[in-house]
Design goal:
The chain has 397 residues and is of the alpha/beta class. It folds into 2 domains: 211 residues, Glycogen Phosphorylase B (Rossmann fold); 174 residues, Rossmann fold. 41% of the residues lie in helices and 16% in strands. It is built from 15 helices and 14 strands. The strands form 2 sheets. An 8-stranded mixed sheet has the order 3-4-2-1-5-6-7-8, with helices on both faces. Strand 9, helix 7 and strand 10 form a beta-alpha-beta unit.
């Protein structure tokens, strides 16, 4: 292990969606001494494992007021900082204050470099004594929260990219975004997948099945699927694995178009149950609406479809369309019910084509295995740290 020390300032180490940094961290700690300071969900218990049922994000009053849990504590060597569950821009402002307060007890002079995951950690380090790499995993100007919140995080994101010594990007669109902002060094390290989890034999169901896995948000494309389903005869079964704020809107839309009987609402599916679900589907769906968030997103569901050998259909939005065209594992459809109906009808009646796409998907997914991406990221980050050391020694100009 290198003697160089890295400070990881994380945005969501224990957040349900904080998969990226948790996946990369083991590969970093194999090569580098890493100390962690991280924001965590408001309702997280002090053992870093438990939260009130249904209140992971909004369990602050119970933890802090009723149970007298601390705002900041140490767990397995990591300094954890409880997020403030405040509305709008007040949340990021409060979290910035909390992170800065937590860093007062940290001797920053011992670190050659920091890794900032997200705009609040990045803004915390801007103008500070420790040079940092910014991990660019989302475009926060396009988030699904209120406009003031998005604009504030967007400004912090851009300031972080400008101030960083290098920027790692989770997708092609994010890399282009960092390059447009004239980041000094930019590298692509996409999100990954554990291919071994999905390495089970495919056995398509007897009747055609479409599958959507993910959050039920207004921009997830299910409205397009429901309208296309209404135009098909005979209709395949559409299985929806996920939950979200727009679930009732989609249920009502399905009833309006007379396709409710063709849809199975599975709700959230545990990770261990996902591979068998993908194994018997005929076509996976990743039909993202053209929004600021989706244009820069690298959606994990697409990699999971590919790793499972599930042919998929996507729209020409974000990195999903790049993956589809590059791998040959997916089709890119226009964002219109008629175009989607045509693509679905073709693929559902072409068994050999689905088998070919399945094989291509599994082969391409191996390039995105965390076991491939993680070591490359660690090696790159170590090179940034060593470069910084050489510059300090006057060996680089």
């Amino acid at each position: 292990m290198s003697s160089i020390k890295l400070l990881l300032l994380a945005n969501d180490l224990y957040h349900p969606l904080g998969h990226r940094i948790r996946e990369l961290l083991p590969y970093l700690t194999e090569r580098i001494h890493v100390d962690i300071v991280s924001l965590v969900p408001p309702g997280l218990s002090c053992d870093g494992l438990h939260a009130p049922a249904g209140a992971l994000l909004r369990g602050w009053p119970r933890r802090v007021l009723k149970e007298k849990s601390p705002l900041s504590w140490t767990h397995h060597g990591a300094k954890l900082v409880r997020r403030a569950p405040l509305p709008g821009a007040l949340g990021p402002l409060a979290n910035l204050f909390l992170l800065k307060r937590a860093l007062r007890s940290v001797d920053l002079s011992q670190y050659q470099l920091a890794l900032a995951q997200g705009p609040v950690p990045g803004r915390t380090l801007v103008g500070g004594a420790v040079p940092f790499v910014y991990d660019h995993a989302d475009n926060y100007r396009g988030g699904r929260v209120d406009v003031t919140h998005r604009r504030l995080l967007g400004r912090w994101q851009e300031r972080s990219i400008h101030a960083a010594v290098a920027v790692s990007c989770a997708g092609h669109a994010l890399r282009a975004h960092a390059e447009q902002l004239h980041a000094p060094q930019v590298a692509l390290f996409p999100n990954g997948v554990h291919t071994r989890r999905f390495a089970i034999p495919r056995k398509e169901s007897q009747d055609p099945r479409l599958l959507y896995v993910g959050g039920l948000e207004t921009d997830c494309g299910l409205d397009l699927v429901i309208r296309a389903l209404a135009m098909m005869s005979p209709r395949p079964v559409l299985r929806i694995a996920g939950s979200g704020p727009s679930a009732n809107i989609f249920r009502q839309l399905a009833a309006t178009h007379g396709v409710s009987s063709s849809i199975e609402w599975l709700g959230p599916v545990p990770a261990e149950q996902l591979p068998p679900l993908l194994a018997d589907a005929w076509v996976g769906l990743a039909l993202f609406a053209d929004t600021d968030w989706n244009r820069y997103a690298f959606h994990l569901k697409v990699l999971e479809y590919m790793a499972a050998g599930l042919p998929f259909i996507t729209t020409a939005v974000g990195d999903a369309s790049i993956l589809a065209r590059k791998s040959g594992a997916g089709l890119v459809s226009k964002s219109a019910p008629e175009a989607l109906t045509s693509a679905l009808s073709m693929l559902l009646t072409a068994k050999e084509k689905r088998a070919e796409m399945s094989e291509k998907g599994r082969r391409a997914a191996k390039e995105y295995d965390w076991a491939v991406i993680g070591p490359r990221f660690a090696e790159w980050l170590l090179a940034q740290m060593e470069r910084k050391d050489r510059r300090n020694a006057g060996l680089l100009k």
